[in-house]
Design goal:
Blueprint (H helix, E strand, L loop, with lengths): L1 E6 L4 E7 L2 E8 L4 H10 L5 E6 L5 H10 L1 E4 L9 E2 L9 H13 L5 E6 L2 E7 L4 E9 L1 H10 L20 H27 L4 E5 L3 H5 L7 E2 L3 H16 L2
Parallel strand pairs: 1-4, 4-5, 6-9, 7-10, 10-11
Antiparallel strand pairs: 1-2, 2-3, 7-8, 8-9
């Protein structure tokens, strides 16, 4: 059994994989050592673990994991089952790399665009030769709402409501229209640009706002929940099999 720990900007997750199947998932606003120990006790057969973090974390966490199982912390030097051609691998978000690995695993031998809709909306492209080339980063839905409120003098902070509004008749509706319609148009527009160069492109959609976009995008997409966790599982398995 494999333990996957994903420390993201918004959510922090513990996941258990058995033979590449996600069998347990726990999510926390703030992951504690007690939560990790409790998870290990709940699943006494854990042999391997991987940690991916885009936020600072305590050294005690890595020391504990290294003491109880075969452990790796994902960084730019970790072996991965694809070729990373990103020009600055040290600055590449670990979640983006893991998502690309998962995309390649889902559609091997294909050009794949992975769109992850979370705190940010990220676009990550991996070609048919399993080469990760990079992608794009833009603000996620909640970040857009907060930016409009924070960086203006009078615009209110609007909550995320699943409304179909094109022409707002008041300020609240206008913000909803701009943020939500704009985000959908952005995803469709960026995907269309990739399709011009790669007509056979496979598009994978994941992330916290996946369901919202899945119902509204007028492009052919494949949805996959928890794509970063699946990518981390693929990276961990690759390292375990490379160093049995």
């Amino acid at each position: 059994m494999n333990l996957i720990i994903d420390l993201g900007n918004t959510n922090q997750k513990l996941a258990l994989f058995e033979n590449d199947v996600l069998t347990d998932l726990q999510q926390f606003p703030l992951l504690t050592m007690k939560s990790i120990r409790d998870f290990m006790v709940l699943h006494p057969g854990i042999e391997n673990a991987i940690l991916s973090s885009v936020i600072p974390h305590r050294i005690s966490l890595t020391r504990y994991l290294a003491s109880v199982c075969k452990f790796i912390e994902l960084d730019e030097n970790t072996k991965i089952p694809v070729t990373n051609l990103y020009r600055t691998p040290k600055t590449l978000g670990k979640d983006r790399l893991a998502a690309a690995v998962a995309g390649n695993s889902r559609f091997p031998g294909n050009n794949v665009l992975v769109i992850n809709t979370g705190t940010c909306i990220t676009y990550d492209f991996i070609n048919a030769e399993a080469e990760y080339l990079g992608g794009s980063i833009s603000p996620g839905i909640l970040m857009r709402f907060h930016a409009l409120h924070t960086f203006t003098g009078k615009l209110p902070l609007v909550s995320f409501h699943e409304q179909e509004i094109l022409t707002g008749t008041d300020t609240r509706e206008s913000i909803l229209s701009g943020v939500l319609t704009g985000a959908v148009a952005e995803i469709e527009g960026i995907t269309a640009r990739y399709l011009e160069s790669y007509p056979d492109l496979k598009v994978l959609l994941s992330g916290g706002d996946q369901n919202y976009f899945d119902k509204r995008l007028k492009i052919s997409i494949f949805a996959q929940s928890n794509i970063v966790l699946h990518g981390l599982q693929q990276i961990l398995a690759f390292n375990v099999n490379s160093n049995p």
